[in-house]
Amino acid sequence: MTNLDFTTLLPYINLLPAAIAITLQVGLGGFILAIVLAIVVGSLRTRKLNWAVHLVLTAYVEFFRGTPLLVQLFVVYYGLPSFGIRIEPMIAAIVTMGLNSGAYLSEVVRASILSVDRGQYEAAAMLGYNSMQTISQIILPQALRIAVPTFMNGFSSIIKETSLISVLPVIELTKLGNQIYAKTYHPFEIYITMAIIYFVMTYSVTFLAKWLERRLSVWVN
Amino acid sequence: MGELIRISNLSKSFADTTVLQSLDMQVNSGEIVAIIGSSGSGKSTLVRCIAGLESVSGGEILLDGEAVVNTASTYGKVGMVFQNFNLFPHFTVGENIIKPLKTILKMKDDIATEKAKTLLDKVHILDKFEQYPNSLSGGQKQRLAIARALAMEPEIIIFDEPTSSLDPELAHEVFETISDLAKEGQTMLIVTHQINAIRRFATRVVFLNKGKIEVEGTPDYIFNQADNHILQQFLKQVDFADI
Ligand SMILES: Nc1ncnc2c1ncn2[C@@H]1O[C@H](COP(=O)(O)OP(=O)(O)OP(=O)(O)O)[C@@H](O)[C@H]1O
Ligand SMILES: [Mg+2]
Predict the structure, then answer these.
(1) From atom 24 of ligand 1, which residue's Cα is the shortest distance away?
(2) In this predicted model, what pLDDT tens digit does every residue of A86-126 receive, in sequence order?
(3) Which CATH homologous superfamily contains domain B3-241?
(4) Of the ligands numbered here, which is closest to the C-alpha atom of B35?
């Protein structure tokens, strides 16, 4: 067994904040995009749609759920430039993570909306709510309350999945780890440190989720 | 007393089950009409058609002379109180009344709040103003639902078995509230099995059987005089269930 020596990492510690910041930016940016997409797509998919819109939305959800995130990243970052669409690696990362997670979470939103009692629609209609007002003020707030735990899990997943963007020219945590490894040859110390940092991030999300759920459950039966 | 609702030759089917057939009925303002009938006779379907919650298959329903086709034709004129309340759980008791007033009637916040307080006081749950519906008893929930319907100042309020999910004492509270409304001249259409309540305030009773009006008349006529075999049979069962 080799001797562990974490001090070899010390010279690189000043690089950590920037890498953590990138990881968080991609994680948070992707998550926010995912939420918006999930709410819009998930809500639309509970309604009767014109066939073209239906086709596009279904294709989006099925494609992103049925292909690997890594391949999606390659398509967006390396593939799109063949069509003259060149995007910054950070933007490519955020957009891909958002589209990917949005596809999964839209199904959660859809299922949550469908689980809201029919009587809520009827009560709203009798009071004069139109369908836009009903969905936005009556149905979605209840559906999203149901979806919150899954959303927060989704946030944790995105943070973990940001390690995949180390394949792009972006120095996030995992990529930084790879670079330090190339210089120090102390893989265990490096990657366990990275793992702990990821863990602290996702574990904080768990706490945030518990707090949010408690706050939001005052009115739950 | 003007005519509020005129139903002519109404029929309603779901797929291949006919639920209502060639039904005629009127409701005048100020009337309190009770609808009775055994399970499956079409009571809910009838009142839901009147509310615009179900489309009709044939005939027509006129509300103030205009055809009811969906809830857009009835809102503001018809209020509905459901068996399972259908309160908005994510709104407080006060907000259940205030939000619709602001969203639908564009009422100013302070005016809506004032109105909500007056109504909640009327149904005796003003002290619950800040709480969420999940902390109310069944009777309080239903009284909130009544206050919410009243807030839109409908010409008629429809109740579909408003007390059948409540214990007798709680049902009593709700009928007290309905009785108060009756004294104020509120037009109401009530589906219920509570014969005692009907005797107290209904001005007319309609007995539905297999999607048709079998017999109708004053409570006294229906409960004491009508010589109708099917009605007699039905009343025997309900009296038994009422104990
Ligand atoms: N949405 C629907 N789809 C199909 N059939 C329905 C639907 N709604 C009601 N029915 C049928 O219509 C008939 C009348 O139902 P309705 O609910 O109007 O009866 P009801 O008199 O209100 O009965 P209850 O006392 O049990 O509430 C029943 O046979 C019922 O199964
Ligand atoms: Mg019924």
Answers:
(1) B39
(2) 899 999 999 999 999 999 999 999 999 999 999 999 999 99
(3) P-loop containing nucleotide triphosphate hydrolases (3.40.50.300)
(4) 1
